[in-house]
Amino acid sequence: MNLSGLSLRDLEYVVAVAELRHFGRAAERCAVSQPSLSAQIRKLEEALGLSLFERTSRKVLLTPRGEAVVAQARTVLEEARRLLALADGSEGALTGRLRLAAIHTLGPYLFPHILPPLRKAWPELTLILSEGRTDSLLEDLRDGRLDAVLLALPVETDGLVAEPLFFEPFLLAHPAGHRLGSAPHLSLADLDPSELLLLEEGHCLRDQALAACGLSARGGGVHATGLETLRHMVAAGAGCTLMPLLAAMGQDGAGQDRRTVGVGGLVEYRPFDTPGNGVRPPGRTVGLVRRASDPRARGLRDLADLLRRDPPPGTEAVLFQRDE
């Protein structure tokens, strides 16, 4: 097969099927009919002399050689976009489609805050939002399935660039009428480890809560699959948990005041005492992570600056100076 028989459009089809694992949804994304997309991929497979996909009646899988071809196809498409950006003078700008994801415990509460300024700054940008766990998001980012992710820092940044945005404190979520609700002060030392409710393994918030409380990975005997389930376990009187501020604010108007309530008055939230001397209360630093090789690096830096200039209420912007 020579280069004249290879089109960028064919590569877009292949990458879409690889990402969606479905020919119909891939055709919708590419704005073509499914028969046309399938025929072009078959034609490309015949020209290359290999099968890119393992097709069954229930799912589509990449073959081992197909994985290598798709990885290279992503690189080719990224470089083609860079070429077009050079031609029209928009190199580095945020244009076209931006695949932005966030961890489960952040996305639903942060997206409503950042979408208005983001849409105002880049009205022509097509946003594709998603959620996931830290490990899977970083894998998708490295493989080119995502353009940027919002998550808790630090993370392993081999081949990636992480920019801190803001510090989000944790609140204590406890059942209404709990003994800690009337305590004059609140610190992590006041928590009973046997009452601590956690997310299941794989959630970074679980690890952050354990680290903040000085507990081992085996700490806490009751686990929840998601943050909203965790909140309702507190409402049911099963125990207490550390709740990110944005998640607390997003529930029934709860905020950062000392006696705010949620879930129909069954859950109370209160902040931990600030230690002072520049020491922050328990919490997490939220950052934006992107590939170091992304041709839209300038635009993604502008995005990070925008989010840092206008952090969500109750959070604190993180001072950051770039080396690049």
From TrEMBL:
Cross-referenced InterPro entries: LysR_HTH_N, LysR_subst-bd, WH-like_DNA-bd_sf, WH_DNA-bd_sf
UniProt KW keywords: Activator, DNA-binding, Transcription, Transcription regulation
Boundaries of every HTH lysR-type domain copy: 6-63
Residues making up the signal peptide according to the UniProt record: none
Pfam annotation, one family: HTH_1
Matches recorded under PANTHER family: HYDROGEN PEROXIDE-INDUCIBLE GENES ACTIVATOR, TRANSCRIPTIONAL DUAL REGULATOR HCAR-RELATED
Annotated family: Belongs to the LysR transcriptional regulatory family.
Record protein name field: LysR family transcriptional regulator
Native organism: Azospirillum endophyticum
Organism placement in taxonomy: Bacteria, Pseudomonadati, Pseudomonadota, Alphaproteobacteria, Rhodospirillales
